[in-house]
Amino acid sequence: MQAKTPEQSKTTMTDMVLPSETNPLNNLFGGELLARMDRAASIAARRHSRRIVVTASVNHVAFNRAVPLGSVVTVEAKLSRAFKTSMEIYIDVWMEDRESGARTKANEAIYTFVAVDETGRPVAVPEVIPETELEKERFDAALRRKQLSLLLAGKIKPSAATELKALFD
Length: 169
Prior knowledge:
By secondary structure, the protein is of the alpha+beta class. Helix content is about 30%, strand content about 30%. It has a single domain (about 5-130), classed as Hotdog Thioesterase (Thiol Ester Dehydrase, Chain A, Roll), CATH 3.10.129.10. It contains four helices and five strands, in the order αβαββββαα. One of its GO terms (biological process) is acyl-CoA metabolic process.
């Protein structure tokens, strides 16, 4: 199984915020944005693994800016790291200024997907080879996030969370 770069999984989805997708303040519903991010992350995970993929968890979501009606929204999803059968996907959400066209980062999220076979059993996925500085930062941080998740779930002992311990040494 050949390792892949994050760029090989990159998925970009651009769409406009319509009236039926907004709340009483005329901003994009959070749930609508979550669905857009889930679709983009799913495509990125499938591009990386070339398998059926399922959402395992939504690890982090930050709604930093409201996205107003009529905005052009771009969701960019890339793999940050792959483990045995799971893949962490980092999602950046951008909105364009209607008049200038300038892009502003509005939100971000981190999803985890698992590759499965036709019977729903997890299958191995290729490794990720980060290239840019940002990809390398996200790659390294993904292991810390995974260890923290496993630690909080009681699936590993604190002594096994070596990347987390290194933060405090």
